[in-house]
Amino acid sequence: MIVSIEGILERATPLTAIINAGGLGYLVNIPVSTAAKLPANGEKVKLHTHAVYREDSQSLYGFANEQERNFFQLLIEKVSGVGPKVGISMMSKLELPSLLSAIGSEDAVLLAKTPGIGKKTAERVIIELKDKLGAFSQSAGASALPGFVSDANAPAKAGVNHTDDAILALLALGYKQNEASKAVGKAVDALGPNASTEALIKAALG
Fold this sequence. Notes:
single chain, 206 residues, alpha+beta
């Protein structure tokens, strides 16, 4: 099992990172919350990972810290109907402290706002995980780790179409084209044209 990967960040999108480790480029699927903490391209980074092996594919999922990785593992292994794609979507919609709070308070309505999660699945998440969260601190995921930037609202990088990137990320999370465009448009109106991709995604998901 691959539990972590450390190397040079070659490039990233809101939902993926390509990390060069030992001369090999690894494609790592990440939630928006992790993308917001990545350093600049060309800098060293470490992600805590979970590997999913299937007959026709191998996928790697990465997170900024072990608690986020461990929650992801618990989520996709214990809750029927929640696979890696839905797990990433949930952790992009809500950061770990909010997820823990929603599960602990049995807030199925909030969980069901995640693309791909209906009311019944949200209720299953609560039933299966509520009594298994003792190992997770309420401050989980709140701080940046060495090698990560800490501000998701940092100014946008020049030469990048952050609006299009944000829309593509929402489409990957299960939104329809018109829903994604409308949500990101509202985020741009609220945050301004210089907002980062991650800030736009967070506002659109909110």
